UniProtKB/TrEMBL annotation:
The lineage of its organism: Bacteria, Pseudomonadati, Pseudomonadota, Alphaproteobacteria, Caulobacterales. It comes from Asticcacaulis aquaticus. This is EAL domain-containing protein. Residues 24-274 form the EAL domain. It comes from the Bacteria.
Amino acid sequence: DQARTAKVKTAAFDPKTYDELADNVLLTDELHSALDNEDLMTFYQPKYDYRLGRVTAAEALVRWDHATRGMVSPQRFVLLAEETGFIRDLTLLVLKNTLRDQAYLKSLGFDIAMSVNYSGRLLTDRDYTEQTLAICAQATGKLCLEITETAVIEDPTVGLAAIERFVAAGIEVSLDDFGTGLSSLSYLKMIPAQELKIDRSFIMEMEKGQRERLLVAATINLAHGLGMKVTAEGVEDDTALALLAGMGCDMAQGYGIARPMPIDALEVWLRACEAQPRKYDALTAQ
Ligand code: C2E
Ligand code: MG
Ligand code: MG
Ligand code: MG
């Protein structure tokens, strides 16, 4: 693996990086037992639908509740899981948890579309695609796979075939963290996705000025022109919520609506929304 070799080379000159590498080996080991010990949990972050004026969807985000390290961020271990192949088991676990929790919410009367993050490199494994499809077939509600731009471009033929299989099965495909990759436009051209998620860095910069806001507005228009709906990530405050409504954004996700939370907290949260409309419930897209 070229990326790994590059990292090892750097480590030879930087003792701090070396420590991190050694720690990664330990983490990888512990990650395997975390799966068995059920220390990997799935949190859910609500997605607000501007047109309907309520939360209709949620994104599943993995959490590692480590015995001595505390909560380890997926930013740290998802990359590690990808490099070691452990991402395969991890993703199936998250997917199964998500389907279980979606069914539970449905039994309570909440029909929530669920998004699961799906590492791009999984798309190039045909057997894994079939395994994923078999699990998704059990879903009691809408499912969406959020894909970041990496491996699809490395092996476009196989990657695209997988995406087409998912779409044909009624599973939505979403382009996650849009705008941060190196070739966003060719990626957009290539992948038949139903949703585009604007990376939170762009949303959080909207307060800076007109230029930043125009970039978000133009991205929304571009996606709409291609028949896609748009979710804004990292919506942290009322200003961003209102700005995005004015731009015709379809969905908003971020701390300004709710933080990722365990399923029992989500249940309580959804009940509270029903009982009492929130400040943003009145905001609809222009
Ligand atoms: P992502 O898919 O872009 O997920 C959104 C991340 O932004 C989450 O971080 C979420 O907690 C955070 N976030 C949400 N709203 C806000 C906000 O208003 N402000 C700020 N500052 N942050 C916000 P998290 O949970 O740490 O996940 C980080 C990344 O790890 C995810 O980015 C995703 O790429 C990856 N990841 C998480 N769970 C999974 C998983 O189950 N499978 C795979 N393959 N990757 C995952
Ligand atoms: Mg995501
Ligand atoms: Mg994202
Ligand atoms: Mg992101």
